[in-house]
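Q: Give me the 3D complex with fe (ii) ion.
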Amino acid sequence: MSFIHQTTPRIHFGLGALQRLGDELKRFAEGPVLIVTDPGVLKVGIAEQAVKAAGRDCIIFSNIEPDPSIDTALACAKAVRDAKASVIIGVGGGSAMDTAKVASILAHAKQPIAEMFGIELVKDAGVPLILIPTTAGTGSEVTHIAILSDEQEHLKKGIVTSKLFPAVAIVDPELTLGVPKSVTAASGMDALLHAVEAFTSKNANSVTDTLAKRAMFLIANNLKAAFENGRNVEARSAMLEGAMLAGMAFANAGVTAVHAFAYPIGAEFHIPHGVANSIMMGPILTFNTLGNPKKFAEAGVAMGLKANVSAEDTIDFMKRLAEDIQIPKHLADFGVRDEHVPGLASGVMKVTRLLANNPRELTREDAMRLYREVL
Ligand SMILES: [Fe+2]
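A: Here is the predicted complex, encoded as structure tokens.
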């Protein structure tokens, strides 16, 4: 076995970790700081807490929508230049952190963004970046991946480059205590799927397996508690740790077809990313078990099910969990109809970056059938 393992080089984890921000900033050049966040995080006062903890002049850019577009990333990069920012701090969920990441490499780049989509195509390092997650889901603080919506092509596209790793991640469970129930549910399932897909990816290795197993244990045993009582500090801490470990796993092993199927429906019907993944999970994981039944059974054991579980038991457990936390089960709830299926299936086949990791090969006909199972 041979592999390379990469992650964020410096991570502060724990209750109150945000207070380390000021000291961390001293490690970088002086000058203004641009805080990239979303309107929701701004409204609940977390951006303000970050400004206070930073102890430096901060300019806030919060014009970020869910599923951020290429134009949003370009506007954010302009804000970096206008502010003459020496450091960027991304505070929020995946949308804010991914926008901050792309703005970092775009701000002073001569290379156009269109040439950056793909794996390791970015030429120059960006503006130093600190990432602070406020949801337990994306794990973006420890990945070298940023996902943007291409509104012309109705596709979600990924930039993958080690230049997207932040210099520092500050991972503070206190910031997740106020996350609304529906977001806790969707982002939690997203994190669980990062771990399961990394664990069953063709590119899994012993390091990513270790990370994914611990992530599956933490998330499977704490998601319901965090959903039921958002102020449960223990459950919130376990979820944020689980999401981070899952991020470390999938940044290196990759995610697979569940995410590939979630992208076209996310881009076209604006189904929240975690919900899209959760809806697609049943049919896709069932299809995938044939590619690696042993690993799917082991995933169930990692989640804390009894020792002799089958792959089907694992998937049943995950489906029940999604039901318990009230995630929708049908694409029709979001306006997807049978006539949309051929176009969506074509969209999936374009997500070659993720399909390459899938434990089982998949055709466009399979894709159509699998979408129809959850209409
Ligand atoms: Fe995801």
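A quick observation: The longest strand covers residues 87-92.
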